[in-house]
Amino acid sequence: MKIIFHIFKKDFRRHWPEFLVSLIFLAIFLWDQPRQWTVHPPEFRFFSSLLRYLPHFLSLSWAFLLIRLVQGESLVGDRQFWLTRPYKWHTLLSAKLLAALLLVHLPLFLAQLLLLKLAFYPVLASVPGLLQIQFMFFSIITLGSFVVGSITRGVGEAALVVLGLFLLLLAIASLSFVFPSLNFSLDDFDDVIACVAFAAATTIVVVQFARRRAPLSWCILAACVASILLLTLISGNPSRQTRNMPLPTASHPLPVKLTFDSGVSFQHQPGEQLDTYGSDPALELPFLLDGIPENSLVQIAGVKLDLDLPSGDRWTSYWHSDSEILVPGRTRVWPSIAVKRAIFDRIRNSSVNARLSLAFNVYRFGASSAIFVMGDSLRLPDDTRCTRDRFSSRMRCFSALKAPGAFVLFADLPNANCRARTDRDSGSWAAAPAVYASLSDSSTPDFGFTPIRETYLYLTRKHGYEDRAADVPLCAGTTLVLARTKFQYTVRTEIDLGNIRPSNYVPSFPREILPKIPSRPSRNPSDTLSFNFLPPDWPRIASKP
Amino acid sequence: MNFPIETESLSKRFGRVKALDDLSFRVAEGGVHALVGPNGAGKTTLIKILVNIFRASAGTATVLGIDSASISGKAFASIGYVSENQQLPLWMRVGAFLKYLRPFYPTWDTELESHFVRQFDLPLDRKLKHLSRGMRMKAALASALSFRPKLILLDEPFSGLDPVVRDELAEALVASTACSTTFVSSHDLAEIESFATHLTYLDSGRLRLSEDVPSIRARFREVEVALDSPAVLPADLPSSWLQVTSSGATLQFIDSAFEQDALQSEILRRFGAIQHAVFHPMTIRNIFLAIAKSARKPS
Asked: So what's the ipTM on this one?
């Protein structure tokens, strides 16, 4: 133990400038965070722009410090004086870990405690969560830096390795250009990939400290990258994806009834450019919706389009992620899917047989309650506090360690006392209420340097043909209905669209749908409590105010 | 008798290059053992195997009774190693460097450290990176001797040093032989000839000779013989005769197993009557030159 501290003291004497730089960044971060909670810094100010990159500078300063710490007793090469001194490898490793703990983890931990205190969140109760964040930080930054430091001799070499690894990961992430099915991730391999990376990194560090076998360590690193690549490819395997989204059964029925509304299409003027923001036009396919159970919420998790081309070939879009939320009251939905420009140009005005596959995540409502917008603030579960954003109609919500658990908010907004912008055609609002859904329900804290999580809360409501959505205002005094949600199951369906003319389903500019939407009877709100417009028993409110 | 260093059929390959080839030798306790040989002979490779920086491709090496492949941590508390191109922590001051190393060695002798600091005139408050090459070597040597190691391994410690520094280091080494065995490598014999007690000669990874200095000096002679008649060199000359040449009635060679009476009889038997014979003692440098030349061009 004495030697561990002895080596640590030497390292501190050597690397105090790097430590000081990281402390300065951390101090700026500490000063800036509470400022961020109350002020939204204007984008055009140079200093404020720099502050946006502060977490990156902070990460870099810590990584630099950690890499330099490890390279202080370089594990690569055969000329270092310490190789023939009575160092025990575990003592050396312990000394380096102690330095990482005291110079990086401890300052971050103390800073996080201070931020929690400043945000009036319970400090002691948050310690277990903070330790989990510290472990994530260790696995990503500390272990990663130890790996880089232990297989390189100097900062230049380390920078090259970091750049190389970054490019490799970028290449893996870009594989979806070659394998479109990778666009749809089920996330079920994320934990496996994390475990593989953690195991490989730990092995490399131990091998380097105990044996200094750089070639072996490079082989482990290469094997790790290859494994991640393989797992990524397996996770994107189309038949595996389909297997993981079963067809409906008696116990897991299809949560909605969908009918392709072939009578509705976009109206295009002769010679009009199709409204395509990317290079590939996106088809928006109109469906009539019915039968969403009163106690359920449905998320469209994935969309896939298959086309039989006039040439006899088949084209598939593969599964693509979606996040459309369907709540009771919705009558239409427009799943959107991009078609390759080259394919679209060949078939735009042809009649092609199409099949649309949709995957749904089904959630059930749990306990519900009514919450008020008090002035400019709002309280959500898990001690989540929201205040009105000065620069938008949204609410900025803050919570400790992780975003609030799975819930959905409803409100019959806008209404007479809480109006939408004047340019909005309020007469065309859809019948379904405005909604905000947060469906992630992770039990572990979110990784980040600050323990205060920030999320934006905004309710959107469909309008027109329910093909568009707009934010609705959250006025003071408004009551929202909050319902907890619980994931039930995933199910998929395939719908034969028959023969369609693809250009009919690419939005026109200006957006015009035929036939024109029939005007709805105007509503006359009876009071300002928006939830009164909801059916009285849906969702059931635990305690009415 | 103890042997701090022993090797048995030691070989080391770097790809296709054979750096050490079937090396078997022993270093007896005490004294200064010089490992000599031309550049690329395998001296540094051998020493790096002894301190477990390199691993042998075949064979074994034992250092202070421990298999060299297992030498690590605590074992280095008895081994002082200094190398010509060792990377020292250049950011440290000399005093801090010595102070930093102290706790690693249970046998560190601060008085001895002070003695070396005085003897080498080491500036304790100067950073190692600001020292000259010679001063850096002195600091390294002070750090490797102050804990009274049982074995001192030095790899080309005198390379590139001026004669004054060289003598100071040699003096320190000789003084420490009372309780240590010193194994020092050099490609320049003149550097270590004056104080080595034992010589091991490596060439192209092969062991050519390993012997006490007095024994080597006694067994090598430069022989010059004046014969009665012109000498004709037969094919089957004794293998101990190196670099044999004749010019008229004069015969010259180096005898590597010198014994005056036996040699004179052998010359008489092969070349007839001797008019005059001179047996010059050789310097170690000349002996090794002769060995090196004969190894490359067998006579």
From this structure: 0.84
